[in-house]
């Protein structure tokens, strides 16, 4: 399977499709339970969480993904009580894939904009980093 397709399946089937068991197929046995826990915790705070793939770039064993993350905060998140407000931010992740499985990932998320949006401030998507 193409490395970009592995990341696309992570978004389509696991995150948006809520099929967390697919993590066992897409990730190493060491990584799958860690992602499952992280995704479950995020879903507790943002029950309608959705990710959109904006861009995927692959070279050798690395896939770089730019995502759009959206959701309504219906539970506590990082010490912030539920606000009922929506957030919409960009994220960038680097995935290392070996033997058809994700072995590690590293990412940057626009937490500054997310926190401002959840606080009810006028923080637009891409305000800090995107010129589009």
Describe this structure in words.
A 4-stranded antiparallel beta sheet has the order 1-2-3-4. It is built from 4 helices and 4 strands, in the order αααββββα. With 132 residues, the protein is of the alpha+beta class. Helix content is 30%, strand content 33%. The chain has helices at 3-16, 23-26, 32-45, 111-118; strands at residues 50-59, 62-72, 86-98, 101-109. It starts with a helix and ends in a 14-residue tail after the last helix. It has a single domain (3-118), classed as Nuclear Transport Factor 2, Chain: A (Roll), CATH 3.10.450.50.
In round numbers, the mean pLDDT is: 93
Per DSSP E runs of 2 or more residues, the count of β-strands stands at: 4
Please, how many helices? 4
The separation of the N and C termini measures 32 Å
CATH class: Alpha Beta
Which architecture per CATH? Roll
Biggest sheet strand line-up: 1-2-3-4
Rg calculated over all Cα atoms: 15 Å
InterPro entries: Cyclase_SnoaL-like (IPR009959), NTF2-like_dom_sf (IPR032710)
Pfam family, one: SnoaL
Protein name: Ester cyclase
SSE map:
Elements: H1 3-16, H2 23-26, H3 32-45, E1 50-59, E2 62-72, E3 86-98, E4 101-109, H4 111-118
Antiparallel strand pairs: 1-2, 2-3, 3-4
What are the salient characteristics of this protein?
single chain, 132 residues, alpha+beta, Nuclear Transport Factor 2, Chain: A, 4-stranded antiparallel β-sheet, 4 helices
Give a brief outline of the structure.
The chain has about 130 residues and is of the alpha+beta class.
């Amino acid at each position: 399977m193409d490395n970009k397709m592995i990341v696309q399946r992570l978004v389509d089937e696991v995150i948006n499709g809520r099929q967390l068991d697919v993590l066992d197929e897409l990730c190493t046995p060491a990584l799958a339970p860690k992602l499952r826990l992280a995704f479950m915790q995020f879903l507790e705070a943002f029950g309608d969480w959705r990710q959109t793939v904006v861009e995927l770039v692959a070279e050798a064993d690395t896939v770089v993904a730019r995502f759009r993350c959206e959701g309504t905060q219906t539970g506590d998140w990082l010490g912030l009580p539920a606000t009922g407000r929506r957030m919409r931010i960009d994220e960038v992740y680097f995935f290392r894939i070996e033997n058809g499985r994700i072995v590690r990932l590293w990412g940057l998320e626009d937490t500054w904009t997310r926190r401002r949006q959840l606080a009810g401030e006028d923080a637009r998507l891409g305000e800090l980093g995107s010129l589009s």
